[in-house]
Amino acid sequence: MTLFTDFGLAQPILKALAAEGYEKPTPIQAQTIPYAMEGRDVCGIAQTGTGKTAAFALPILHRLSQSPKPRQRKSARVLVLSPTRELSGQIADSFRAYGRNLRLTTTVVFGGVTISRHEKELANGVDVLVATPGRLLDLIDRRSLSLRDIEILVLDEADQMLDLGFIHALKRIVTLLPKDRQSLFFSATMPKTISTLAESFLRNPAHVAVTPVATTAERVEQSVMFVSTGRKQALLEVVLRDQSIDRVLVFTRTKHGADKVVRSLDKAGIVSAAIHGNKSQPQREKALAAFRAGTCRVLVATDIAARGIDVEGVSHVVNYDLPNVPESYVHRIGRTARAGATGLAISFCNDEERAYLRDIEKLTRLQVPVMPLPEGFSAGPMGGEAAEPRREQQRGRPAGHSRGHQGHGQPRNTDPNAERGPKRRRHRGPKPANAGQPNGGQRPAQAQPAQGQRKPQGQPAQKRSEHRGDGAQVAWLDKGPRRR
């Protein structure tokens, strides 16, 4: 198929595609749409940015338009599941755009917003429901949604859905679906173990793989810079001061790391925003809107958000931290070079991340070229980097000093000639009479009362001390034996 008109799609859909400027289908669309229009199950694999959403949305809209049915209360005809809120919203927008000339309703539900709002939208039923698994099950448990009328099930980013904690939710959802349904799985990567699991959800599927698994986008120019952990932030600021960088996505491994990068960039006068799972839905939408509008040219994100960011004009992707899952690298750099454009992906790599880099090169079967550091920039100590300070240091205690004996967590000094400080001992009871004291342990300064006599009034109490676990010395007045 060389044109969308060759598929036999309904005229209202072709009219909407013309308005969107679509003329020729991408390879994944050309191979998938005929199978889907026949009603077959499909397992499609294609790299990010190749048009997978249209590959399943167009045949679904055609089927709904050719077989109209009255909407059933608290139900839907099509269910599309995705792992993130951002991706769910973009899928729903695509259905609305391609079906603008059809009398079909599309609703998206996800966590982070009031569930009563979703209940009102589903009260009279919808044609296409796009959802994240968690919020979908919430609606089912509240009896605000039934899956008895689902005709088509779509899993977008299927490897993410099955591999990162959604498997139990998916198994429960599948048991609530009609057995006589069409199922479509799409993803940029499909490891063998995940593919085997996906096969149990599909019936005699048509396999479509237009590119090798985990192949990176061809128009993305990749490079890596070797730099110590402590110099990554300074290197990022140097890179971002290049005015030729129009719109850049920076990826970190953790949510805390993303917030830390944004705070440092703000101090350097570089406008940026963070998007990750700890941000509320209004905060995420505000950050994405500013990024799309260009008022914020730097967006710092985590891997979970990598699959839901579809913004045109992303010129650069910076891997501030290399991902420990090599497939995530493919999704990260796939955020640039979309819709035929070109892009640049730069990765910062320290000594600990060299193993991650080797895994990425093994998966993609490509060697990432090394880019020299900016002139005059120091990479910092690459060998034997100090670990991130512990929380004790943040509370005012020196690094490596934890509760317990002094020096815990520090390397032991094995030099026999090295100077050693006095040993500290925790008192667990009264000392022996002659333990380390002169004159056989006698106390010449003060005579002790005879046995059975009470301590005379006005006699000062004995001062005793012991060492706490954190090395500090605690003193108190010993007023005599305690009754047990």
UniProtKB/TrEMBL annotation:
Gene3D superfamilies: P-loop containing nucleotide triphosphate hydrolases. The keyword ATP-binding applies. Keywords: ATP-binding, Helicase, Hydrolase, Nucleotide-binding. Residues 231-379 form the Helicase C-terminal domain. Residues 2-30 form the DEAD-box RNA helicase Q domain. Residues 372-484 are annotated as: Disordered. Residues 431-462 have a biased composition (Low complexity). GO terms for molecular function: helicase activity. Residues 33-208 form the Helicase ATP-binding domain. It comes from the Bacteria. It holds the Pfam family DEAD. A motif (Q motif) lies at residues 2-30. Belongs to the DEAD box helicase family. This is DEAD/DEAH box helicase. It comes from Microvirga terricola. The lineage of its organism: Bacteria, Pseudomonadati, Pseudomonadota, Alphaproteobacteria, Hyphomicrobiales.
